[in-house]
Design brief:
Layout (H helix, E strand, L loop, with lengths): L4 H6 L30 H58 L5 H19 L2 E4 L11 E7 L10 E6 L1 E4 L2 E4 L1 E6 L1
Parallel strand pairs: 2-6
Antiparallel strand pairs: 1-4, 3-6, 4-5
Length: about 180
């Protein structure tokens, strides 16, 4: 049996659910099954997403600081490798000055030493001043002691055997010094 178009328009749709709010025997509306104390699924998912986002932000910040530290450590290790070369250049130049050597060898040594000092300065490396200064165990390594000479004070650096270097406040190599007593 085929229904008429008019009959179809006049029919009311049948539903599987009731659209009216449920009431109990007294006629009062029933309270919703979820209470305010229990968060809904949406709230749980939102809180979880926020925690995950905060964890990821912390992870990213931690990695940025670890990367910066690793770069700084690598820079220090590379500089440490060049410091003995710098020392040998200074010794060679000093020896040639004592021998009154002149000419292109002296000029070449002076230029290489000057370039090396400039490269270290560009990297933020500073020489630790020691001779004539009070002994500071934070940046000096005392390897010898001598009695005070005229014009010297006890606890003063009398001679520098090996120069010390630092980047900002971090000591790369301690100055090896002789101290007056």
């Amino acid at each position: 049996m085929k229904k008429n178009d008019k009959d179809i328009k006049n029919e009311t749709p049948e539903t599987d659910y009731e659209q009216t709010p449920e009431t109990d025997a007294t006629g009062d509306y029933e309270e919703c099954a979820t209470s305010e104390a229990t968060p809904s699924k949406e709230e749980e998912y939102l809180a979880l997403a926020q925690r995950i986002q905060a964890d990821f932000d912390n992870y990213r910040k931690r990695n940025v600081s670890l990367r910066a530290e690793a770069i700084a450590d690598g820079k220090v290790e590379a500089i440490k490798a060049f410091l003995p070369v710098m020392d040998n250049l200074e010794r060679a130049l000093e020896t040639e000055r004592k021998n009154n050597t002149e000419g292109s060898l002296m000029e070449g040594l002076e230029l290489v030493l000057k370039q090396m000092a400039q490269a270290l300065a560009d990297l933020g490396v500073e020489e630790i001043e020691a001779e004539g200064k009070p002994f500071d165990p934070a940046c000096h390594n005392a390897v010898m002691q001598i009695p005070c000479a005229e014009g010297q004070n006890p606890g003063e650096v009398a001679q520098v055997f090996s120069k010390g270097y630092k980047i900002k406040d971090k000591v790369i190599r301690y100055s090896m010094v002789q101290v007056t007593i």
